[in-house]
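A brief tutorial aside. Many learners find it easier to grasp structure tokens once they have seen a single protein encoded end to end. The record that follows does exactly this for L,D-transpeptidase. Read the sequence first, then the structure, and try to relate runs of similar tokens to stretches of the chain.
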Amino acid sequence: MRGRVFFIAAAVAAMAIVSGCTTNSTQFASAYKGRSDGGYALPSIPLAKVERQYRRQIVDYATKEKPGTIIVDTDAKFLHLVLEGGKAMRYGIGVGREGFEWSGVAKVGWKREWPTWTPPAAMIKRQPELAKYRGGMKPGLTNPLGARALYLMRNGRDTGYRLHGTPEWWSIGGAVSSGCIRLMNQDIIDLYERVQPGAKVIVS
């Protein structure tokens, strides 16, 4: 009888451990539903098509950086927002394609909701069809900057790089951009609300 009780207890404990392991990756699942935001009907993201590691989750994270710091791991395609207690909020990201990678230390200069996108001159030169947006592409569901943008500065100057949303949720986990770091729109909205101007950003 004692052996049976031990077996049941062990099974319950194992279930609890499994539940604990999956909680972090599923607790924000409802955050990817469609919603109204800034006058736009933000569509839902088919979460079943997004690899589990790229979904928003709280993870153990050892770092000497203070809470509020953003650490971008371009190899793993993760952005970590450092939290208290050895934890971090982790988001899946898309990064710069070959030849457009960027790394370094910067800070969040300013933030914008539903930003205007203005392609840089070098991009227009590569893609002349973008010349029509030289004066800026109006905000919207198809705007490449998505629902939010955090503008990165270094030594008091705009780096030209952004942490921003994207309507192309399927690109998360890939090397696809012209150097900026992109997140799913629902994730950049969450990050935007947690981060203040002046926050340190480390991209490696």
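Self-check: The helical segments are 2-26, 121-126, 185-194. If you spotted this yourself, you are ready for the next section.
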